[in-house]
Amino acid sequence: xxxxxxxxxxxxxxxxxxxxxxxxxxxxxxxxxDMHKAIADNHRWTHGALIGIATVGIIGIIGVIGAxxxxxxxxxxxxxxxxxxxxxxxxxxxxxNVPAASSPTQTN
Length: 108
What we know:
With 108 residues, this protein is mainly α. It has helices spanning 2-14, 18-72. It has a domain at 2-72.
């Protein structure tokens, strides 16, 4: 009987007390709050990035549609008065003087 009592007293020493359970609950609550903060930060960054990517995509699509729209329209005539085109000045002709060919002379 004494051996059983000694074994029970030894086992009771190792059992968690209310203070141990309260400390464990506090640690779990702190871990949960840290995890909640990390998830909230991740949520904020993820949605910010998605909104930015979507905005860039929409602006790009609008730009492509605008370029296609403007390319399909015929160009209108210029509204300003046309410039007067003057003919290019004519340069004097180039004259090349070639000496006359001399007649061959006979030698005896």
